[in-house]
Amino acid sequence: MGIAREIIKNRYLYVLALPGLLFLIVFAYVPMAGHLIAFKQYRLADGIWGSKWIGFDNFKFFFMGSDWYKVTFNTIFLNGLFIVCGLGIALLLAIFLSEIQNALFKKIAQSFIFMPYFISWLVVSMMVFAFLNTTDGILNRTLAANGLDTKNWYLMPGIWPAVLTVIYVWKFAGYYSIIFLAAIAGISGEYYESARIDGATRFQQIIHITLPLIRSVLIVLALLGVGRIFYGDFGMIYGIVGDTAPLYPTTDVIDTYSYRALRQLGDFGKSSAVIMYQSVMGLVTIVIFNAFAKRIDKDAGLF
Amino acid sequence: MENAIQQVRSQKAAKIKNDRTFREKLFVIFLYAFSGLFALICFLPFWLVFINSFAAESAIKKYGYQLIPRDFTLYSYQFVMQGKQVASSYGVSVTVTVVGTALALLITAMYAYVLAHPRAKYRNILSFLTYFTMIFGAGLVGFYILIANWLHLKDTLWALILPYLLNPFFAFIMVSFYRTLPYEINEAATVDGANELRIFFRIILPISKPVLATVALFYALQYWNDFFLALMFIDDYKLHPLQMMIRQLISNINISAYVGGSQTTYTQPLPTYGAQLATVCLTIGPIFLLYPFVQRFFVKGITIGALKG
What is the pTM of this model? Predict the structure, then answer.
């Protein structure tokens, strides 16, 4: 059966898919032409097709300097911290909440823990500033009140991986703990009952029943996170750090770096080369780690 | 003799049992303490922002952020509301969120239906085209050139709406829902002579309300909280959504000109912190007014998404 016949036969179905398909073509596939700029000396007047080919010059500029190493390291290091601490704390919270009998306490605690998930990174950034700013920040006020030295936290790049990790855990612990709680709720109550009859303590039940049975969920979430390790969270990093240059050494990720190259320096070629590098590395890691995730849980992969 | 040994034994057993119940109790206390403390840390920043939006600027400057301010004033809100910016930013955010969510929901629901439909022969090709955009992005530069130079959408509301109309992840949540519907519904309607458009709008959409509500909330939150698109494409401050307004208030030196929109004269000193706090409260207010409802649907959506992501 030819393509035309299938489409005519199910024309009403394909009409339903048409707006979505058009969207994908225009907003996801057409802009992929932008990757060509990585190999060109882009000039607005000449457009993507008309600009001069310059081979790998843009990549040379990027890889010759020390920037590429710094932003790659920051992206992977920060994402690694986020995955380990984010999933770890969320797992603890989910297990603890599932052990709590008092329904009201549980409900209120869960509602509070989920709250940060709903606010934008700029609101978070305002809260962080209220906490850390030099003159009126809560932290410095508290330090001063106890006779300790205040510090200018926005000039100390060394502490920011930790600060960003705390913020990440704060924002996403609720989200991940919901996934873990759903997995825990799926465990049959009979396991716990027979363990209690055998005299197992709660702690032993957690170690020997809950943890092994939700291990695959944890591994799958971790693998999916690792698969996206080359993609920094632009909204988070740029929302919180913004243009605070003293913090770049530890917080500048590939996404914020390419954004600045494009919007502040207007260097389309360099920005494109950085993004192409990220897309290719990202594609390879996603494909690899998706395969792992699928091996553990056949429904887990993205594709 | 026998009796004595028995007694010692049972005493020992009782002691072990007591130890155990004591340790169990300690463990339970620890569970409550840890969860409670974490919940409190999550909530505290919200409380501080909310309560200090009613504090006088001079009090914040003098005492810092307070758990309970010494005196209450509505001046921060008056200051923000007097200006034109908050009204126009609210208008932009509401328009973008309402129009964007409605369009995105319609397009996603229709598209996902075809991906899930057993009779659509090319559904796997469509699925792959959709998946591929999740793992290989066009990147910032191509995207920027598309919106700014090819579609000429800079400084228009469409630049804030169009790019988020179809989120592959949300589409796949809907696909997994449609797959749970019995195919007989479809067959029966086909026998009755209804075409797919009719079946979709008359039968499928009405029975999909729960998942539609969940996905609509996902989209609405995305539109409401986004600042990336505005950062990239909106230079005209009249078209700044609320998120951009917050950003301006954090970084802008001349807040009276920005908030006021004209040469409004103020009798009191400018509430720099107050304006930020009040604007943040006005921005996150709608989300938390509907919080119990919002929370319920998000938990549902995340659970579906996690079980088949």
Answer: 0.90
